[in-house]
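hey m, so remember when u said the tokens were messed up on ur end? i reran from scratch. heres the input so u can diff it against urs
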Amino acid sequence: MKVERQATEELDRLAGLVGRIEVGMLTTIGPDGSLRSRPLQTLQMDAEGRLWFFTEADSPKTGEMEAHDQQVCLSYADPDKTSYVSVSGTGRLVRERERMRELWKPLLKAWFPRGPDDPALALLEVRLDKAEFWDSPGSATMRKSGLVDNVKTAGPRSAAPGDEAKLPKP
């Protein structure tokens, strides 16, 4: 996964955890109101704090996302290192072929055999609204070590473990 330099220390820590774990569980709201999660390989956390994934443009998850104001949740877990991430955000489909080619890896051919030029393929961009992460390297006891809130608004400030951090607009 490609991780670009972030605007704040909190986002850098978040990007490092997501980059290490890589596979997130994307949760959407199903047609009957139930929550549905499925794994997605994270391709990138860009310098604007956006997460990028490949998806089939007409998949159930994209329909569920569009039916609920683009709201999604992503969770990442590495129990061996007691590291966990929860991200709430706004998703949207992006069909920029050049961007797809830029993010493409041969490994992805197993899921998308027609490659980055497949007309059914799209990128899913998730803009972070809120994120929480817990990271406890070298310890069996999990501790909350940061909260990113309202990523789109306010100015930066220092955050103590478990404190809320308001970050600049990406």
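this time it looks ok to me. The CA atoms of residues 29 and 123 lie 19 Å apart. if urs says something different then somethings off w ur setup not the seq
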